[in-house]
Every structure is written in C-alpha cells, then in structure tokens.
Amino acid sequence: MTTTTAGHRAPLALAGFVAAVAVVAVAGALASSNAREVYGSLDLPGWAPPPWLFGPVWTVLYLMIAVSGWLYWRAGGDRRGLTVYGVGLLLNLAWTPLFFAAGAYEVALADIVLLDVAVVVSIMLFARRSRVAAWLQVPYLLWILYASALTASIIRLN
Fold first, then answer.
1. How many whole angstroms separate alpha carbon 60 and alpha carbon 95?
2. For residue 43, what are the domain limits?
3. Count of domains observed in the chain
C-alpha cells in the first residue's frame, strides 16, 4: 500500500477503527446493564473507583484506542500488529460479560491478564511504525492494569 492510497482511504479506515471499537463499547454497555448493582454488592478495596468514573474513562480510552489503531494502519502497520490489536479488542469485549453478566470473576481475571499482555505487545509493535500510536495505548494499559488489580482484589475480598 502506498502512502497516496492510504491517504485516500484514511477517512474510511478511521471510520472502520471507530466502528470496531464502538462495537466493543456498545457490547460492554449492554453486558453491564446490571453493573451498578453488581459493583455495589461486592466487597471492594478502599482504592476502588466510584461507579460513575467508568463511563467517562472508557469513553476517552475507546477513542484513543481507535485512533491508535488507525495511526498504526496509516503508518503502514503490518498484519501481526493489527492482529494483536484485534485480539486485544476481543479480550476487552469478553471481560464485561464475564465479570458482570456471568459473575465468572476468575475467568474475567484470566481474560484481563491476557488483555494486559496483548496491549503491551501492541505497544511494542506499534512503536516500530508510529510512536504516537504506541503512546495512545499507554493510558489504556495503565487503566487495565489497575482493573486487573481491582479484579484480583475483588476475587480475594469476595
């Protein structure tokens, strides 16, 4: 793919990345319709965030994730990096129904640890083509590492 071709297809590709991430976001929202009740019924560590914080944080992170994938693609990112990115989206998609809908906290923890790994690998691969794309993944990684620790604490406390 040449830069000229990528340039002409860039807006459509950006829409595709936004759509893919939006599917993950909407599916997560649907799977967490009872999240407030579930979260409120759990014994939580003192450092657990308030329920209202999740929506705004995820909105910003999902936008950053979409732009990151698009920037990587636009910089000539290869299939391996896009595959790892896609696997990360699937793992992200799986966490909310596992945790909130199924109450499978241990499986959700395994899922999010795999997501942590996928995002680290994405950052490393993205950095080879676009440092901005890689850096846009860092807040996401920090949030899911925090969520991993929170999930592990919830398992321990409940």
1. 18
2. 3-157
3. 1
